[in-house]
Protein backbone atom coordinates (compact mmCIF):
# COMPACT_ATOMS: atom_id res chain seq x y z
CA UNK A 1 0.00 0.00 0.00
CA UNK A 2 2.82 2.42 0.82
CA UNK A 3 4.13 2.28 -2.75
CA UNK A 4 0.72 3.25 -4.11
CA UNK A 5 0.70 6.18 -1.68
CA UNK A 6 4.13 7.21 -2.99
CA UNK A 7 2.78 7.06 -6.55
CA UNK A 8 -0.26 9.16 -5.59
CA UNK A 9 1.90 11.76 -3.80
CA UNK A 10 4.17 12.07 -6.84
CA UNK A 11 1.22 12.55 -9.21
CA UNK A 12 -0.50 15.07 -6.92
CA UNK A 13 2.72 17.04 -6.29
CA UNK A 14 3.51 17.07 -10.00
CA UNK A 15 0.02 18.24 -10.96
CA UNK A 16 -0.09 20.94 -8.24
CA UNK A 17 3.23 22.43 -9.37
CA UNK A 18 2.20 22.28 -13.03
CA UNK A 19 -1.11 23.99 -12.21
CA UNK A 20 0.76 26.69 -10.29
CA UNK A 21 3.04 27.32 -13.25
CA UNK A 22 0.16 27.48 -15.76
CA UNK A 23 -1.90 29.83 -13.56
CA UNK A 24 0.93 32.19 -12.65
CA UNK A 25 2.96 32.33 -15.85
CA UNK A 26 2.43 33.02 -19.52
CA UNK A 27 3.43 30.35 -22.03
CA UNK A 28 7.16 30.69 -22.86
CA UNK A 29 7.68 33.10 -19.96
CA UNK A 30 11.01 32.59 -18.19
CA UNK A 31 11.77 33.76 -14.66
CA UNK A 32 15.46 33.78 -13.70
CA UNK A 33 16.05 32.16 -10.31
CA UNK A 34 19.85 32.07 -10.65
CA UNK A 35 20.79 34.29 -13.58
CA UNK A 36 22.24 32.42 -16.59
CA UNK A 37 22.02 29.11 -14.69
CA UNK A 38 18.50 28.23 -13.52
CA UNK A 39 15.15 29.63 -14.65
CA UNK A 40 11.53 28.65 -14.30
CA UNK A 41 10.39 28.58 -17.93
CA UNK A 42 6.84 27.57 -18.83
CA UNK A 43 6.63 25.52 -22.03
CA UNK A 44 4.40 22.89 -23.64
CA UNK A 45 6.15 19.68 -24.68
CA UNK A 46 4.16 17.70 -27.25
CA UNK A 47 6.87 15.04 -27.52
CA UNK A 48 8.72 12.76 -25.13
CA UNK A 49 12.04 13.50 -23.46
CA UNK A 50 13.97 16.20 -25.34
CA UNK A 51 10.78 16.74 -27.44
CA UNK A 52 11.38 13.48 -29.33
CA UNK A 53 8.42 11.86 -31.10
CA UNK A 54 6.40 15.08 -31.35
CA UNK A 55 2.96 14.50 -32.80
CA UNK A 56 2.71 10.88 -31.66
CA UNK A 57 0.29 11.64 -28.80
CA UNK A 58 -1.52 8.28 -28.76
CA UNK A 59 1.76 6.36 -28.69
CA UNK A 60 3.09 8.65 -25.95
CA UNK A 61 0.02 7.83 -23.87
CA UNK A 62 -0.31 4.10 -24.58
CA UNK A 63 3.35 3.04 -24.16
CA UNK A 64 3.82 4.72 -20.76
CA UNK A 65 0.46 3.32 -19.60
CA UNK A 66 1.69 -0.20 -20.42
CA UNK A 67 4.86 0.39 -18.37
CA UNK A 68 2.88 1.97 -15.52
CA UNK A 69 0.35 -0.87 -15.50
CA UNK A 70 3.15 -3.47 -15.47
CA UNK A 71 4.86 -1.66 -12.57
CA UNK A 72 1.60 -1.50 -10.60
CA UNK A 73 0.95 -5.21 -11.10
CA UNK A 74 4.53 -6.10 -10.12
CA UNK A 75 4.34 -3.93 -6.99
CA UNK A 76 1.04 -5.56 -6.01
CA UNK A 77 2.17 -9.14 -6.63
CA UNK A 78 5.69 -8.83 -5.18
CA UNK A 79 5.13 -6.27 -2.40
CA UNK A 80 5.92 -8.78 0.38
CA UNK A 81 8.94 -10.48 -1.18
CA UNK A 82 10.67 -7.98 -3.49
CA UNK A 83 13.46 -5.74 -2.26
CA UNK A 84 12.16 -2.31 -1.11
CA UNK A 85 14.56 -0.47 -3.43
CA UNK A 86 13.15 -2.31 -6.44
CA UNK A 87 9.59 -1.48 -5.41
CA UNK A 88 10.49 2.15 -4.70
CA UNK A 89 12.19 2.52 -8.08
CA UNK A 90 9.08 1.15 -9.82
CA UNK A 91 6.84 3.46 -7.79
CA UNK A 92 8.95 6.48 -8.81
CA UNK A 93 8.81 5.51 -12.49
CA UNK A 94 5.06 4.82 -12.32
CA UNK A 95 4.30 8.05 -10.43
CA UNK A 96 6.36 10.24 -12.72
CA UNK A 97 5.08 8.49 -15.81
CA UNK A 98 1.49 8.86 -14.68
CA UNK A 99 1.99 12.57 -13.96
CA UNK A 100 3.06 13.15 -17.56
CA UNK A 101 0.41 10.82 -19.02
CA UNK A 102 -2.29 12.85 -17.25
CA UNK A 103 -0.99 15.98 -19.00
CA UNK A 104 -0.82 14.32 -22.40
CA UNK A 105 -4.29 12.77 -22.11
CA UNK A 106 -6.01 15.90 -20.76
CA UNK A 107 -4.04 18.74 -22.36
CA UNK A 108 -2.39 17.14 -25.39
CA UNK A 109 1.07 18.18 -24.13
CA UNK A 110 3.22 18.03 -21.01
CA UNK A 111 3.88 21.16 -18.96
CA UNK A 112 7.63 21.61 -18.37
CA UNK A 113 9.27 24.36 -16.32
CA UNK A 114 12.67 23.54 -14.74
CA UNK A 115 15.22 25.20 -17.00
CA UNK A 116 18.95 24.80 -16.34
CA UNK A 117 19.73 26.68 -19.58
CA UNK A 118 22.17 24.04 -20.91
CA UNK A 119 19.74 21.13 -20.59
CA UNK A 120 16.23 20.52 -21.96
CA UNK A 121 13.42 21.92 -19.81
CA UNK A 122 11.75 19.31 -17.58
CA UNK A 123 9.33 18.85 -14.66
CA UNK A 124 8.90 17.00 -11.35
CA UNK A 125 7.44 13.93 -13.07
CA UNK A 126 10.57 13.69 -15.25
CA UNK A 127 12.76 13.84 -12.14
CA UNK A 128 10.94 10.91 -10.57
CA UNK A 129 11.13 8.84 -13.76
CA UNK A 130 14.90 9.46 -13.99
CA UNK A 131 15.56 8.86 -10.28
CA UNK A 132 13.43 5.71 -10.45
CA UNK A 133 15.45 4.43 -13.41
CA UNK A 134 18.68 5.26 -11.58
CA UNK A 135 17.53 3.39 -8.47
CA UNK A 136 16.55 0.45 -10.66
CA UNK A 137 20.06 0.34 -12.14
CA UNK A 138 21.58 0.52 -8.64
CA UNK A 139 19.31 -2.32 -7.53
CA UNK A 140 20.21 -4.45 -10.55
CA UNK A 141 23.96 -3.89 -10.25
CA UNK A 142 24.55 -3.88 -6.52
CA UNK A 143 21.67 -5.63 -4.79
CA UNK A 144 20.30 -8.18 -7.20
CA UNK A 145 23.59 -8.42 -9.07
CA UNK A 146 22.72 -11.69 -10.78
CA UNK A 147 24.22 -10.55 -14.07
CA UNK A 148 27.46 -9.54 -12.37
CA UNK A 149 27.69 -12.77 -10.36
CA UNK A 150 27.18 -14.93 -13.44
CA UNK A 151 29.84 -13.03 -15.34
CA UNK A 152 32.25 -13.22 -12.42
CA UNK A 153 31.77 -16.98 -12.05
CA UNK A 154 32.20 -17.62 -15.77
CA UNK A 155 28.73 -19.13 -16.05
CA UNK A 156 27.94 -17.18 -19.18
CA UNK A 157 30.53 -19.00 -21.24
CA UNK A 158 33.23 -16.35 -20.95
CA UNK A 159 36.66 -16.84 -19.42
From TrEMBL:
Q: Reply yes or no: does the keyword Transmembrane helix apply.
A: yes
Q: Which GO terms describe its cellular component?
A: plasma membrane
Cellular location of this protein?
Cell membrane
Broadest EC class?
A: hydrolase
Name the catalytic site residues: 112, 126
List GO molecular-function terms, semicolon-separated. Answer: aspartic-type endopeptidase activity
Q: Where are the transmembrane segments?
A: 56-76, 83-101, 121-142
Pathway connected to this protein: Protein modification; lipoprotein biosynthesis (signal peptide cleavage)
Chief place of localization: membrane
Enzyme Commission identifier(s): 3.4.23.36
Q: One biological process GO term for this chain?
A: proteolysis
Q: How does it sit in the membrane?
A: Multi-pass membrane protein
Catalysed reaction(s)? Release of signal peptides from bacterial membrane prolipoproteins. Hydrolyzes -Xaa-Yaa-Zaa-|-(S,diacylglyceryl)Cys-, in which Xaa is hydrophobic (preferably Leu), and Yaa (Ala or Ser) and Zaa (Gly or Ala) have small, neutral side chains
Instruction: Provide this UniProt record's keywords sorted from A to Z.
Output: Aspartyl protease, Cell membrane, Hydrolase, Membrane, Protease, Transmembrane, Transmembrane helix
Q: Which Pfam families match?
A: Peptidase_A8
Write out the similarity annotation: Belongs to the peptidase A8 family.
Cited HAMAP family: LspA
- Any idea what job this protein has? This protein specifically catalyzes the removal of signal peptides from prolipoproteins.
Name the record gives this protein: Lipoprotein signal peptidase
- The species this protein belongs to is Zhenpiania hominis
Tell me what gene encodes this: lspA
Amino acid sequence: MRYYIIIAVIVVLDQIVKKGVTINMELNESIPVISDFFHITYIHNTGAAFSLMEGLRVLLIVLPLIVIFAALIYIFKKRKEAHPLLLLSLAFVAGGGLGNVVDRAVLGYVVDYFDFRVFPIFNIADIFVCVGCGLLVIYMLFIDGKGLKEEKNGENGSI
